[in-house]
């Protein structure tokens, strides 16, 4: 094998290792600010971090794809190695949330229960609903801790740099996109029985917010989890300055 080919393979292996390390980081916990100025600053900071990390991760995927294309153009006994690297690239893209996945899993639906709302004190209900983002964060973490391999919240893929936060009692934000808190649908592919056990503790907490918490099992392998959505990052407050900045 030529020296430059060896160097290319070392670079590919190093990039794959780095990306695997990035993807094992936990989801950033949402933080709530008490003042409008603080909230705007928090939004700006989170958006900048998410934008730059997304761009950096995608640049690494493109670089690995180019390395594989270069190796594929060469002749000799490298064909098996190329196939191995291509398979590893696909695995990393799946773990990075950049590819659609399909399998068995569960669908968690969290929606307003008007019978519960009718018997709740309005002020207490409003206060409890301000914790919605924190509890959704807990739901996602419990899913991950119970062998979920891919998760979406209202069709927004949860990846290592995702955020879930409550803006106020009537506004929820997932991956910097505003979504309605009236009905939230979380889909997760993974160990169905384990995930169901993890979800069993949450109905009472969401009932305090006037919400019904139900879990539906999809055991036939037909549950589809879409990839991370490029359009979910808005560039209103910050723009990426370069692909290789964190």
Structural description of this entry:
The protein is of the alpha+beta class and 246 residues long. It folds into 2 domains: 36-96; 101-224, Protein of unknown function DUF881 (Alpha-Beta Plaits, 2-Layer Sandwich), CATH 3.30.70.1880. Helices cover 47% and strands 22% of the residues. It has 8 helices and 8 strands. It has helices spanning 3-23, 36-72, 79-95, 114-118, 122-129, 132-145, 192-199, 203-207; strands at 101-112, 148-153, 156-157, 164-168, 171-174, 177-179, 183-190, 211-225. A 5-stranded antiparallel sheet has the order 3-2-7-1-8. α1 (3-23) packs parallel to α3 and α2 (36-72) packs antiparallel against α3. The model is unreliable at 20-35 (pLDDT under 50).
Key phrases:
single chain, 246 residues, alpha+beta, Alpha-Beta Plaits, 3-stranded antiparallel beta sheet, 8 helices, DUF881, coiled coil
List the helices and strands and how they pair.
Elements: H1 3-23, H2 36-72, H3 79-95, E1 101-112, H4 114-118, H5 122-129, H6 132-145, E2 148-153, E3 156-157, E4 164-168, E5 171-174, E6 177-179, E7 183-190, H7 192-199, H8 203-207, E8 211-225
Antiparallel strand pairs: 1-7, 1-8, 2-3, 2-7, 4-5, 5-6
Helix pairs in contact: 1-2, 1-3, 2-3, 6-7
């Amino acid at each position: 094998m030529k020296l430059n080919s060896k160097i290319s393979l070392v670079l590919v292996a190093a990039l794959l290792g780095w990306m695997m390390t990035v993807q094992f980081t936990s989801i950033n916990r949402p933080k709530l600010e008490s003042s409008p100025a603080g909230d705007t600053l928090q939004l700006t900071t989170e958006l900048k971090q998410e934008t730059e990390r997304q761009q950096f991760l995608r640049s690494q995927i493109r670089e690995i794809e180019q390395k594989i294309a270069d190796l594929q153009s060469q002749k000799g006994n490298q064909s098996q190695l190329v196939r191995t690297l291509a398979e590893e690239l696909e695995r990393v893209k799946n773990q990075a949330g950049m590819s659609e996945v399909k399998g068995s899993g569960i669908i968690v639906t969290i929606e307003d229960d008007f019978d519960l709302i009718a018997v709740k004190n309005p002020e207490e209900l409003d206060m409890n609903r301000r914790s919605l983002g924190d509890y959704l964060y807990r739901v996602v973490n419990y899913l991950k801790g119970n062998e979920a391999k891919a998760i979406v919240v209202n069709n927004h893929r949860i990846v290592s740099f995702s955020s879930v936060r409550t803006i106020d009692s009537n506004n929820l934000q997932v991956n910097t996109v505003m979504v309605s808190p009236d009905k939230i649908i979380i889909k997760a592919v993974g160990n169905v029985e384990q995930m169901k056990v993890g979800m069993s503790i949450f109905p009472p907490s969401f009932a305090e917010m006037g919400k019904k918490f139900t879990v539906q099992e999809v055991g036939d392998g037909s549950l589809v989890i879409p990839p991370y959505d490029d359009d979910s990052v808005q560039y209103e407050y910050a723009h990426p300055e370069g692909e290789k900045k964190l």
